[in-house]
Amino acid sequence: MNILKSLFTYRNVKILKPGLICDCNRSYAVASPPHLEPGLFKPQKVLILTKLSRYEYEKRRHPELTEKQLEKCLSLRGSDYNNLLYHHYIHKGVENTVNSTFAAAGIQTRVIYRFDYTDPNIEWADAIVTTGGDGTFLLAASRIPDRDKPIIGFNSDPTRSKGQLCLPQKYSVEVQEAIDKLLKGKFRWTFRRRIRITLIGDDIFKPPVELHNQQLQYHEYRYLDMEPQLRNVDEGLPPCSETGMARRVLPVLALNEVFIGECVSARVSYLELSMDNVKGIKQKCSGLIASTGTGSTSWTYNVNKLTDQNMEEILTIVKEETGFKIKDTDEKFVRKITETFNEMLITNSEAPRMVYTIRDQLVTSPLRGECIKPRGISKSISVRSRCFDASLVIDGGLSFTFNDGTRALLEIHDEDALRTVTLQGDVTEVVFKH
Amino acid sequence: MNILKSLFTYRNVKILKPGLICDCNRSYAVASPPHLEPGLFKPQKVLILTKLSRYEYEKRRHPELTEKQLEKCLSLRGSDYNNLLYHHYIHKGVENTVNSTFAAAGIQTRVIYRFDYTDPNIEWADAIVTTGGDGTFLLAASRIPDRDKPIIGFNSDPTRSKGQLCLPQKYSVEVQEAIDKLLKGKFRWTFRRRIRITLIGDDIFKPPVELHNQQLQYHEYRYLDMEPQLRNVDEGLPPCSETGMARRVLPVLALNEVFIGECVSARVSYLELSMDNVKGIKQKCSGLIASTGTGSTSWTYNVNKLTDQNMEEILTIVKEETGFKIKDTDEKFVRKITETFNEMLITNSEAPRMVYTIRDQLVTSPLRGECIKPRGISKSISVRSRCFDASLVIDGGLSFTFNDGTRALLEIHDEDALRTVTLQGDVTEVVFKH
Lengths: 434, 434
Hints:
The structure is a homodimer of 434-residue chains.
Chain A: H1 2-7, H2 18-25, E1 45-50, H3 54-61, H4 67-76, H5 81-104, E2 108-112, H6 119-124, E3 127-132, H7 134-142, E4 151-155, H8 175-183, E5 187-192, E6 195-201, E7 209-210, H9 227-231, E8 246-249, E9 257-262, E10 269-275, E11 278-285, E12 288-291, H10 299-304, H11 308-322, H12 330-343, E13 354-358, E14 375-378, E15 380-385, E16 390-394, E17 398-401, E18 407-412, E19 418-423
Parallel strand pairs in A: 1-2, 1-3, 3-4
Antiparallel strand pairs in A: 5-19, 6-8, 6-18, 7-17, 9-12, 9-16, 10-11, 10-15, 12-13, 13-14, 15-18, 16-17
Helix pairs in contact in A: 11-12
């Protein structure tokens, strides 16, 4: 913990009056069973899902190597052994502190890696805690099928990742304070809305592919444990709708976003989209991203953000066209407009709406009827694949086949929300336009 | 041809004085051998690579079905049989006219589908002609290894595709005029620059994957014929550079663009980029697109274009911040700025430079040294993969493995240019800022 304290400066946390937070979110509140009311919530058993650090991962991958040999092997690949070790210790420090702090409060804990993140362990626990980054949190959330199991994330390496889904960074150091607030009811539940996906078509029961297997970024994030659960779907008769086509509600909810499109980046995607009440319009694009409010700070944000470079060029053109004059320096003005634009991309994680983006949309001819804007908000989205080799990808991790003729329905339902925590005195989000 | 004439209105072609065109491009001119000088160029043998229409493709795919059965089968998949037939006839009309017009001029022709687009046929021909869309043109160009074999593209269905790479749309009707101009020397060569790719690393001799196999969009575009050529590279010793790592210049040049990144769309890509003299900066993004001038109207354009929607929102913010007033209606003003911005994205196909785009770039910390702008121009680009399962994709068609540790060098060389035609009185591009 010394390493962390010496490195880490607390980010300024915007504090609103508790009443104001509640007001903002009153319309999105979801009822809680009595034992989950803040103040009455007293978990006896906590499952701690901890990240497999990059260092641990490499050790397991090369069990036959000594430390010195491992250092050399990593160096040949352009990786820094000392750096890996350093971050490993930071992570372990946070994990140990979280574990011992819960134990000191008289709570039973089990600390597990992803390989043991199984249904029996999840059922045993009153709450799931993660020590890792957003990847670990996403993995944990993926096996929580409804809003009745709370999940709390500790960012175990704030020097490395922002940890949007975890508690604010200060609690990576102030673990005691976080757990005190939790056990004393000094928090409210934040119901992060998730997207439910229904597939309709012929080829919808194939087991999905898991994308994160050994990826450097989220290498702690594997769905392999889910495969038995998903494979069993092949057995028995698939349910049919009136049209005779099979329907399947996927057993995984999207916490960040659903991507739909050709799974190979360089291929053009053809999709027919229907938003709320606008009926099927054929799109030629690089795919569709349907994001929750949670996901609006993630991939969707990076796809849609305005860059300083673009704003500079736009400003130059506007000045040439109109002789427009500004008081600030160009640089300051550009920064201001860019920031304002980008802030508006972030939406409330509790609002029951999706933000969608049609990537690199080729503008459809106005003669062909109503167009769909490249970016917007929708309560429900229906997509029909006209693709060759496409996928429906959930949270960048689980990839389902989605080829020509298959349909997907994306919706948000209250019962699918993820029950997470906002501790008293903190805010996760401030003001939203929508 | 009647169908086409009745449907099609000629696009206004901007005409510059021939001298002015030459001046713009004098600095990019490439010397021609005597027999290729306009006026002296008299092809005796022309190979016509024709598109396999969607209708023909479906017929071959379902040889056992009658016409009525095929119509029903397509309808179940949401496709329109009559529409397919209609476009098939338009295409065949142009193909037949091109063939007969060359024949009437005393020129030997061979009309082939992609399956017969082989080296012997290419060597036989004095010039390659395509009747199809941009996909057919790209396929034809992919087997022309240097600047000595001319290629001319006829857009065989201008109702359907813009055909950026083909002759202007009017020549789909005025075939005779086009061929007259060609044979009378009333044209100049346009040398479309292409990107040469060198791979350096361990795993660089794997045969590539061909992406277009049965894709609905460019289904006429297959590299399968190339596989023997590419597989042979495995035999014999790979050449080594001084560092001992294998080097390989790929046998395919990029006419549009090179995409480098995780081949699965939903994955984050880690790349180390060096542009001209800026040394390796690690990028976290959705991939890199390095585009030629030719490619700057294609995928790159759609990735970078400013949408009316974004410009509207920017205008709203600017007005709120500054009280900015404009004379035009908002809509007109937005359109004007957007168009001006987007026009600047298009670069000269003959300029020996690449336009690069770093997709969804996560901004690197300024503390880590010089940043690379998300979009810019470079004469040469060096990329090192820090990816898990990435590809280097040429013209959206051929995909080479590009995993952690592998390097790629992208360059433009005069000898790699593609020799295409600009007929007298037409322009392919007008004014360029760069």
